[in-house]
Amino acid sequence: MHQDLLVLGIETSCDETSASIVENGKYVMSNVIYSQIEIHKKYGGVVPEIASRNHIEVIGEVVTKALDDAYITLDDVNVVAATYGPGLVGALLVGLSYGKALAYGKGLPFVGVNHIEGHISANYLGGDFEPPFICLIASGGHSHIVHVKDYGVYEVLGRTVDDAAGEAFDKVARALGLGYPGGPKIDKIAKEGDPEKYKFPKSFMEKDNFDFSFSGLKTAVINQLNHEKQKGYSINIADYAASFQKNVVDVLTYKLVKAAKYKNLKKISIAGGVASNSLLRARLDEIAKEEGFLLHYPKQIFCTDNGAMIASAGYFDFVRGKTSGLDLNAIPYLKLFNC
Ligand code: KG4
Ligand code: ZN
Questions:
Q1: Model's pTM, two decimal places?
Q2: Which atom of ligand 1 is nearest to the CA of 276?
Q3: Under CATH, to which class is 133-297 assigned?
Q4: Which atom of ligand 1 is nearest to the CA of 305?
Q5: CA dist., res. 14 & res. 37, Å (int)
Q6: Which pLDDT belongs to residue 2?
Q7: Residues 228-244, buried b or exposed e (16+ Cβ, 10 A)?
Q8: Cα 297 to ligand 2 centre (Å)
Q9: Cβ partners under 8 Å of residue 285, min gap 6
Q10: What is the CATH number of domain 6-124+302-319?
Q11: In which band, very low, low, confident or very high, does the pLDDT at 338 lie, cut at 50, 70 and 90?
């Protein structure tokens, strides 16, 4: 495909309303993100109904700003892409319906994008990384280790059997009284704590697979916290945060490296909200040097949910001949399949 293609990517699967214009799957011309974090904060997590309503209120404005920021109009867009799952069904439906309506109105091709595939594709933004590689996707809803064989061609090697890594960050942060979203808060306060203070059990390290389990760790942290509270000890939140974070990072990096060696691949990457964690990045930098891996991670802004990653995934689907019908529905529990 030699002709330049501009893809409008729309993302509304959770609490970010985002739209972006990306050229040829790689070059970000605009990326507008309206975050609802401030709205959901007081409830300690995302309230699905409130999320959907807010997406409806701002989606038009967000898409218009994405076009304006890229100095284009809808007439310049070649393909419309929108997330159709996994995510909150009401939230997904807003971006999906909006995207389909735009495509229909303008007679443009439409591509429904798997959100997990979007996170993986965030690695293509900027244009300096390409398959094959092993990708760790760790976000609020997903923890996967995927062999990315080619654009849009995946082998899922492992996934979480219970809580996702980001979910564990959010739940532990809540128990520590740090508020929502927990990941960035734990990341920050952990810098002041002792990561060796508590030796929580490292889940699934001994198992000969690439799966994760974080629910036992979360329970161990909460039990220890309750125990110390009952004894009347003074609680050092930073030590808890640092010990918990180190545990998660040790498990994630161990499994990612093991998968790369198993597949004999030297290229590794990370994606998803947890990929912006500073300890995870620092540890992987060290490991990459030691092991001679080429490590790539998306810019922080493309790790958490955004329209640019959806536009990129949509582009690579489109050039491989994959488009969606306008009858495509939202699929809240959509999985990433081997193909
Ligand atoms: O990818 P994302 O924006 O949404 C989902 O697809 O789930 O990821 C959000 C998740 C939240 O659980 C948040 O706590 C976590 O990513 N997160 C972090 C950091 N920044 C965001 N976790 C650890 N460290 C961070 N710096
Ligand atoms: Zn996400």
A1: 0.95
A2: 26
A3: alpha beta
A4: 3
A5: 10
A6: 56
A7: eeeeeeeeebbbbbbbb
A8: 15
A9: 295
A10: 3.30.420.40
A11: confident
